[in-house]
Specification:
- The chain is mainly α and 195 residues long.
- It has one domain: Alpha Horseshoe (Serine Threonine Protein Phosphatase 5, Tetratricopeptide repeat), CATH 1.25.40.
- 78% of the residues lie in helices and 0% in strands.
- The chain has helices spanning 9-39, 45-69, 77-95, 102-126, 135-154, 160-191.
């Protein structure tokens, strides 16, 4: 270990080699979800619920699997696990409540986005001392998620079409930020010689 590298940074650098692809998958899923929402703006509430449910369950399952598999080396694995569980639960609620109304779906997505945003911001702040960790991208993604959730809560009556367009734009922006962050994290792992 070089003398100028803080010992506390090394565990973060070594976990980057396993984290970057999880973040990349989540980003790709979010972008695909956003594209589906924008390509079919006339999508019904039921179809949107199914798309959201599948996205949330797959995203959550990836996070749960990763956090449990790497809990011995993943600092803050409980945070990843919590995010995964919340995501899976949100997806299951949407999936097993087929009669969900547009307003209930709006509130579900709003609270989901706010919770994910807050957890993302906390995670970003934990990584801020790690050089090249991509924490700024995580922070921006978290802030975007919180803002999106708050906008949905403040303007719930904007209509389902407005919700779908806003949701599509948010998902694409959030996904792109995650993809950029994943490559930043991968680059940090390469620089540290662990990839």
């Amino acid at each position: 270990m070089s003398a100028n590298r803080e010992p506390s940074v090394d565990p973060f650098r070594s976990l980057f080699k396993t984290v970057w692809w999880v973040v990349l998958i989540r980003g790709i899923l979010a972008v695909l979800f956003g594209i589906i929402a924008l390509v079919w703006p006339g999508i019904t509430v039921w179809a949107l619920v199914i798309v959201f449910a599948v996205y949330a369950i797959v995203d959550g399952a990836v996070l749960v699997w990763h956090s449990i598999r790497d809990r011995a080396t993943l600092d803050g694995w409980g945070l990843w696990l919590a995010m995964g569980i919340v995501s899976v639960l949100a997806g299951l609620v949407a999936l097993f409540w087929p009669g969900i109304t547009a307003l209930v779906l709006l509130y579900l997505i709003a609270f989901y986005a706010i919770l994910f945003g807050v957890i993302g911001i906390v995670g970003a702040l934990r990584f801020r001392k790690v050089p090249d960790s991509g924490w700024v991208w995580s922070l921006v993604a978290g802030v975007v998620a919180v803002i999106f959730g708050v906008i949905l809560l403040i303007f719930p009556g904007s209509g389902i079409l407005g919700l779908i367009v806003l949701l599509g734009i948010y998902a694409i922006l959030f996904g792109v930020l995650l993809i950029v962050m994943s490559f930043q994290v991968r680059s940090a792992a390469k620089k540290a010689g662990i990839l």
